[in-house]
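Private note to self, pasted from the team thread so I don't lose it. Backbone tokens:
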């Protein structure tokens, strides 16, 4: 059970990192928008 929780946690961190990277590459979007995008993707199950 703990391994599943850790897996989800690391995937969320991964998406947050992607969101931060996209925020730097594409200044059209604010970092907050990209952060929300990453969180939404992780919650929808796109691991």
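Design output:
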């Amino acid at each position: 059970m703990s391994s599943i929780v850790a897996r989800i946690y690391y995937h969320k961190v991964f998406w947050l990192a992607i969101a931060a990277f996209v925020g730097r590459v594409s200044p059209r979007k604010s970092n907050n928008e990209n952060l929300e995008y990453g969180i939404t993707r992780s919650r929808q199950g796109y691991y």
